[in-house]
Hints:
lipid metabolism; Enoyl-CoA hydratase family protein; ClpP/crotonase-like_dom_sf; 251 residues; lyase; Enoyl-CoA_hydra/iso
Amino acid sequence: MPITSELRPDGVRVVTMDAPPVNALTVQGWYDVAAALDDASADLETHVVVLRAEGRGFNAGVDIKEMQNTTGFDALIGANKGCFAAFKAVYECAVPVVAAVNGFCLGGGVGLVGNADCVVASEDAYFGVPEVKQGALGAATHMARLVPQHMMRTLYFTARTIPAKDLVQFGSVLEVVPRDQLDDAAMAVATDIAKHDTRVIRAAKECLNGIDPIDVNKSYRFEQGFTMELNLAGVSDELRDQFAGTEKSKK
C-alpha cells in the first residue's frame, strides 16, 4: 500500500508514503494520508507521529497523470478535497507531527510539511511550489509557514525551489542531516516528545493551534478557489497536458 502506519512500543507512530516513482499521490492516496493521521489522533497510545517517505523524494504533489486521464472534473475535485483533508489532518492531528523530508518536497508535499509541528530534512532535500507551471494555485499558505513572506512570493511566482539547509536560518527546519541519518534524527525528536505525558502534549497541541495567527484551513481553501477558476477557463488543462507530455517524452 502507498500509505502505511506503524505504532512503535514507545508511542511513536510512523506514517510512511511509498508511491513510486516520485510519491505523487492519487486522490485515494491523499485520503489515505488523512485517514492515517486521523487514526493517530484517535489512538491514545499514539504520542507523536513521524511522517516520512520511501524512495527518491518525500512528495511530488498530486498525480497529474491521474488527473489528465480522468474525464470531466472528478479527479480535480477529488485532488482538491483529498489534499485539503490530508493537510487538515496533519495540522489538526491531536499529537505533534514530525516531518522527515528527503529529496524533493513539492506542491502537496509542502502542504503536508508546512502543517507539521517539526521538520527535519536530509542534505539533499529541497522545497518548492511549482503550481503555476500546471495552472494551479495552492500551498502558498503552507510555504508561508516555512519561509518569510517575500521569499514565499518569489518562490511562488518563479516556481523556484529552495534547499532545506537554507530553511534552518528561518527556524522552520530544525536540522539538516545526511540522508542515511534522517530517520534517526526524526526519531530522536519524536522520542523526546513521546516521553512526556501524552495528555499534556495533546493539550499543548490544541493550545498552540488555538493561538496560531493564521487559519490554515480557510487560507488554503481560498487558494483552491482560484485553481477552480483557472480550470474552468481551460488554462490548467492546457498546462497539465504540456507537463504530462514532457514527462512522457522522458520515458
